[in-house]
């Protein structure tokens, strides 16, 4: 697997997309939980920068994957706080 995945002509972070798929396949009700959101956040935060491709990938994941309300609220809050420092 390469670093990027192209969907409809747009580049996305392949590792983030793969992680989101792994977290939702065959587990629970198929939604991203708060624990899953923490794992995604850790992956975004690993290089201590928030690239445009990561931003686009997170937007794609937020739009195309189901989240629990708690996970969604927690993730949006944390990513805003962290991205605001970048």
Describe, in plain words, how this protein is organized in 3D.
The chain is mainly alpha-helical and 86 residues long. It has one domain. 59% of the residues lie in helices and 9% in strands. The chain contains 4 helices and 2 strands. Strands 1-2 form a two-stranded antiparallel sheet. Strand 1 and strand 2 form a beta hairpin. Helix 1 runs antiparallel to helix 2 and helix 2 packs parallel to helix 4. The radius of gyration is 12 Å and the shape is globular.
Q: What is the chains' assembly state?
A: single chain
Main sheet summary: 2 strands, antiparallel
What is the number of strand segments? Answer: 2
Task: Give the % helix.
Answer: 55-70%
Strand content: 5-15%
Radius of gyration: 12 Å
Distance between the termini: 28 Å
What is the total number of structural domains?
1
> Helix count?
4
The residue-averaged pLDDT reads 90
Layout of secondary structure:
Layout: E1 4-7, E2 10-13, H1 14-24, H2 34-45, H3 52-64, H4 69-83
Antiparallel strand pairs: 1-2
Helix pairs in contact: 1-2, 2-4
